[in-house]
Amino acid sequence: MLLSDQRPNFVTLVSLIRALGAFSCQEVIRVAHAYVIKLGFELEAPVVTALLGLYSMFDIGIACKLFEHSLHKDVVLWSAMVSACVKNEKYKEAIHYFRRMLYYGMETNHVTVISVLPAGAHLGGLCFVNQIHGFSIKRVFYSLTNVQNSLVDVYAKSGELKASISLFNGMWQKDLVSWRTMICMCIENECPREGLNIFLKMQYSNIEPDEIIIRHAILASVKAKEIKFGLGFHACIEKNGFLAFISVGTSLLQMYAKYGKFGSARMVFDQLDNKDLIAWSAIISVHARGGQPHDALSAFKQMQSINEKPNKVTFVSLLQACTALGAQELGESIHGFVTKAGYSSNIYLKSCLIDLYCKLGRIKQCKALFDETSTKDVVCWSSMIKGYGWNGYGFEALETFSKMLNCGVKPNDTVFLSVLSACSQCGLEHEGRRWFYSMQEKHGITPKLAHYACMVDLLSRQGNIEEALKFVKEMPVEPDKRIWGALLAGCRSKCEGSTKVAEFVFQQLSALDPEDTSCYETL
């Protein structure tokens, strides 16, 4: 066009500026801005609006200056400014511009309302959300489906799920976004069963679900522990052709993994066409967490054969598989891959590497990895404590735990499990008792069955069989096979009272699972 000596008008420039958004190149955007000024269109509201949208992607400050210098601010420009602030997480500024707009007597539209609503939700301003709700009713925007969708979304994000559901149920016209938003918000608010109910209601509407809704329904079935629904849903997915979407297939195989059906997860994976990195990482993770490390490594080799490059998630699963197998050579090879890929500073991968080398008994290398980690999170500390315990360095484990507390890192139940496990394996009975009782008294962490199992194991290893039995009987939670198994294993020490306790424990295990014969082997 320029080569033909044709002068573009502002409509052409608006189209050009919007097209530049796909490139996200600051220099090109600045050149386009300079060209706009050269042609004298810098005061045209549509041009300013288009430029504001571009600049807001990388410099909200310039976007604000553009807005303030504009002489002709229409409703579209005001709405764009509010939206730009929200996208850049400048929520207070978004509300400020909205209020300025009202102060200057500007007419708002439904886009303005939709743009400003998320600001209220992120600031926890339920009062503001209610005000906008009332404002939309007064200005007759409320009847618009996209305004109602936004209100459903922000009420749920503000912790008012009941209000969100009530608003949703009262909608006369629900579109795909309406159903998707409501199902997603139920899951986010830890009400997966309600999400499933809404999905089932959708089946009686004239709206067909898309792959995003199908994925959310799968997730809801897992969170609600509705195994039968999930299994039946698989048939529905295949029948309606949703397995063609790789994201749906990946969600489905992850669902089977959660249910412990690893064979079915693999079957779904094998059915997928054009497997992407997420699908490969998912199946490697499924095998690693399902106690199938050989299959995890086999999947990785298949992944390499098609030149699919692993990411951080893939490496985490691979390192977990190597740790489970104690595969030194392969583990070192994966470590090399991690370094080459530029992930060596990733804190979670560092923790996985510490786990691996601790399992291999290479405690010096673990310590070196741990010390070179500048910002240690609770997972990293826990890995080092657990590693010391595995290798019989009980006092070093407790010293590391003390350092963690001194650094101001708040312990969680996983860290305490590592501490108690180290005390049990290293025979530190006094320290184990002390830290167990401090969990709830000092740190407000309620012990889980795994913590009780560590204490039973600790007492049993020290020959305190009768005290261990008393401890089990006084537990505030019902003991499971793991608890009774730890106590039965301790009875092999042949200390005083162990035979009588063993007989009692055997009865408890038989009652829990009459078909399990492992207790006979322990006896």
* Fraction of residues in H or I helices: over 70%
**Class from helix and strand fractions:** mainly alpha
What's the number of extended β-strand segments? 0
Structural shape: elongated
Uncertain stretches of 5 or more adjacent residues: none
The chain-level mean pLDDT equals 85
* Strand percent estimate: under 5%
Give the C-alpha Rg: 30 Å
Distance between the ends: 90 Å
Q: What is the count of DSSP helices, taking H or I runs of 4+ residues?
A: 31
InterPro entries: PPR_At4g14850-like_plant, PPR_rpt, TPR-like_helical_dom_sf
Protein name: Pentacotripeptide-repeat region of PRORP domain-containing protein
Pfam families: PPR, PPR_2
PPR repeats: 74-108, 175-209, 276-310, 377-411
How would you describe this protein?
The protein is mainly α and about 525 residues long. The chain has a domain at about 175-275: Serine Threonine Protein Phosphatase 5, Tetratricopeptide repeat. The protein has helices spanning about 10-20, 25-40, 45-55, 60-70, 75-85, 90-105, 110-120, 125-140, 145-155, 160-170, 175-190, 190-200, 210-225, 225-240, 245-260, 260-270, 275-290, 295-305, 310-325, 330-340, 345-360, 365-370, 380-390, 395-405, 415-425, 430-445, 450-460, 465-475, 480-490, 500-510, 520. Helix 17 packs antiparallel against helix 18 (about 295-305) and helix 17 runs parallel beside helix 19.
